[in-house]
Specification:
The complex is a heterodimer of chains A (about 80) and B (about 220). Chain A has about 80 residues and is mainly α. Chain A contains four helices and no strands. Chain B has about 220 residues and is mainly alpha-helical. Chain B has one domain. In chain B, a hairpin with a 2-residue loop joins β1 and β2. The chains are: A mainly alpha (about 80), B mainly alpha (about 220).
């Protein structure tokens, strides 16, 4: 059974989707953890502002998540379109 | 699992072109719109000093979002554009939450909805920028540090639309795919309610809030 060109393309697309998602998840993971840690420090220093800090932290995390979301979109494209 | 990449489409030939309608998205969008209209009608029909439960929810949402937009845009513009912000937030929250109901799909799971809402924010912000600052000051913002930075500024403006719409689309689509895959793996036994609570309710509300805030911030950047 020889490997056809289309099979090779499909296999490479699946591999690329996995690599894209895995590498793209590193940055947002580190960044969001850093943001959460800093927010914890700030809440410990200033507990009565906890609501505002939590809201700001969540919005900032959702924005910094976007690079991970881009890699998710790329891997979805690779899986379903290629 | 085989329903993962499938979309129901209605394709109508029209003078040599094919018009494609994503039927599910259109129906779900109209369901969301009618629920919102019903909510608005019920919340404001019996206004009283001692508010009913729906009126309390409506007053809470409207007061919070008016305060947000007044903070960002100033008193006059904030009051003028707060209804837009309210409508955007309520529509996005309801469309992200409607996926919790079985056999319902989020309209934001299709890229068309977030992209059109992002383009709406883009055009409104640039129209307001031209209207409040004048054409000369608006164009001057593009050659801000010096002339050769113009391509970067233009690409930066266009990237805002792409980033804001792909963020919402990716979050909702990724969440629904994760729910589908994990429900398939555990034979829909224990985990799906918790997954729906996290990806549907929590992430949906946060992404709707982020989308609304970013639209507001883009408008505020153009106005100042």
């Amino acid at each position: 059974m020889e490997i056809m060109g289309a099979d090779l393309v499909k296999a490479c697309a699946c591999l690329g989707a996995g690599i894209s998602m895995g590498l793209g998840a590193i940055g947002p993971g580190v960044g969001e953890g850093f943001a959460a840690g800093k927010a914890c420090e700030a809440i410990g220093r200033n507990p009565q502002e906890a609501g505002l800090l939590t809201r700001t932290m969540l919005v900032g995390q959702a924005v910094s998540e976007s690079t991970g979301i881009y890699s998710l979109v790329i891997s979805l494209l690779l899986l379903f379109v290629v | 699992m085989e329903e993962l990449g499938r979309i129901h489409q209605l394709i109508i030939p029209f003078f040599g072109h094919n018009l494609t309608f994503n039927l599910e998205v259109i129906i779900m969008t109209w369901i969301v719109i009618s629920i919102l209209l019903l909510f608005g009608f019920l919340a404001s029909s019996k206004k009283s000093i001692i508010p009913g439960p729906l009126q309390v929810v409506g007053e809470l949402l409207v007061a919070q979002l008016f305060a947000l937009s007044k903070d960002a845009l100033g008193e006059d513009l904030g009051k003028k554009y707060a209804p837009l912000i309210c409508a955007l937030f309520m529509f996005l929250v309801l469309s992200n939450w409607i996926g919790i109901v079985p056999h319902m799909h989020e309209p934001t799971k299709d890229l068309n909805t977030p992209l059109s809402l992002g383009l709406l924010g883009f055009f409104i912000s640039h129209y307001l920028g031209i209207k409040t600052k004048g054409m000369k000051a608006y164009l001057k913002a593009y050659i801000d540090p010096f002339f050769f930075m113009m391509p970067l500024n233009v690409i930066g403006e266009l990237a805002k639309v792409v980033s804001i719409s792909f963020r919402l689309f990716g979050n909702i689509m990724g969440g629904s795919i994760i729910i589908l895959v994990i429900s398939y793996l555990v034979y829909s036994l224990i985990l799906p309610p918790f997954l729906n609570a996290f990806f549907g309710v929590f992430v949906g509300a946060i992404q709707a809030f982020v989308f609304t805030m970013l639209t507001l911030v883009y408008i505020a950047v153009q106005v100042k």
